[in-house]
Design goal:
Layout: E1 3-9, E2 18-24, E3 31-41, H1 43-49, E4 66-73, E5 85-88, E6 91-93, H2 99-102, E7 114-115, E8 135-139, E9 144-145, H3 152-155, H4 161-171, E10 179-183, H5 187-198, E11 202-207, H6 213-219, E12 223-226, H7 230-234, E13 240-245, H8 254-257, E14 260-268, H9 282-285, E15 290-293, H10 299-312, E16 318-321, H11 326-334, E17 341-345
Parallel strand pairs: 10-11, 10-13, 11-12, 13-14, 14-15, 16-17
Antiparallel strand pairs: 1-2, 3-4, 3-8, 3-17, 4-5, 5-9, 6-7
Helix pairs in contact: 4-5
């Protein structure tokens, strides 16, 4: 029989989140049942809860930065055992047969990866519900091993914020000698600084706030440029190999393109929508520069990231909250009042 677990759900776009009992399916042969210990709070959770993108279906249980303990395994499971510490990110399934999946890039599945919440199960069509709950059932291939020594609570946001910036840094083979710029010091930006510095790169933060200079240096940035001061931007012209742009709304990019060296790449990792104001293509032609995008990472790459974090001692800076504080957390997120990610202690969901 399916199991009923306690969750916390958005019932409508204009209502606070509220307790809700949800049904988790019986285990299939390749399924793992996980008792959730911690769940990170992503800005995407807020967008879905408030239906900012116009595709939310209610009731909706958000949460795709999940850390927990294996409670039960299906008959065919071989990768995990009861009691293992594990993690689940933004995907819980994919076709595993298309070229993207064969390349271990399930996030780009040609048939559409199944999202942890706000989506439909590939087998029975039931709605997927996320990590704001006491338990979840996930296909074995999409359950990650949490390395020993990695703090469970601080690791939770790695499953989205972490992999979102790790993936482009890894893809572009960032290492000693690479010059990396990061635009914005939020949940994604602070992890981009930490990862790039841990990889051995020379890191520059672009920010509009003078008050973030010391903080950026604490996180590992070697340089900080205040984007509203022309002289500081001029000093960065043609200096950077790649720039990770974490700003989640339209903003001028011309000044940052000038900071790219020849063959440089400005990589968008926030859902910015339309590029506004428009970019003059001459800025790309002069120096063979590129604007590209990147979305999370595949399962193998996410496991590599978790292992890297355990080896290098890299985790997110987090603020712990109770489940019933989620609406206040959303309000603070909208006001940029968090350093740098909220994490829910799921023991608080009683």
């Amino acid at each position: 029989m399916p199991r009923i677990v306690k969750g916390y759900a958005a019932l409508a776009a204009d209502q606070p989140l509220a307790p809700l009992e949800i049904e988790r399916r019986d285990l299939r042969a390749d399924d793992i049942r996980i008792d959730i210990d911690y769940c990170g709070v992503c800005h995407t959770d807020l967008h879905f809860a408030r239906n900012h993108w116009g595709r939310s279906r209610y009731p909706l249980v958000p949460g795709h930065e999940i850390v927990g303990t294996v409670a039960e395994v299906g008959d065919g499971v071989t990768r995990h055992q009861i009691g293992d510490k594990v993690a689940v990110g933004c995907m819980v399934d994919a076709c595993l047969s298309c070229p993207a999946c064969h390349a271990d890039e399930e996030q780009y599945c040609h048939n559409g990866a199944t999202q942890t919440y706000g989506d439909k199960d590939r087998v029975d069509g039931s709605p997927t519900q996320g990590g704001y709950s006491r338990g979840i059932v996930v296909r074995e291939e999409f359950v990650l091993r949490l390395p020993q020594g990695l703090d469970s609570a601080a690791a939770a946001p790695l499953l989205c914020a972490g992999i979102t910036v790790y993936s482009p840094l890894n893809y572009h083979k960032v290492g000693p000698g690479t010059r990396v710029g990061v635009i914005g010091l939020g949940g994604l930006g602070h992890m981009a600084i930490k990862f790039a510095a841990a990889m051995g790169a020379e890191v520059t933060l672009f920010t509009t706030s003078e008050g973030k200079v010391a903080e950026a240096q604490r996180l590992g940035a070697h340089h900080v440029a205040l984007s509203k001061i022309p002289e500081q931007m001029q000093a960065q012209h043609r200096q950077l190999d790649i720039i990770i742009d974490t700003v989640p709304e339209p903003h001028p990019m011309a000044g940052y393109l000038q900071c790219l060296a020849r063959n440089g790449n400005l990589i968008l990792v926030g859902p910015v929508g339309l590029l506004e104001p428009p970019i003059h293509t001459g800025m790309l032609l002069a120096g063979r520069k590129a604007i590209s995008g990147s979305a999370i990472g595949g399962i193998a790459e996410t496991q590599t990231m978790l292992d890297f974090c355990a080896e290098r001692g890299v985790t997110c800076d987090v603020e712990m909250i109770r489940m019933d504080e989620i609406d206040q957390a959303y309000a603070r997120m909208e006001n940029n009042d968090v350093r740098y990610r909220f994490v829910v202690d799921m023991q608080s969901l009683q």
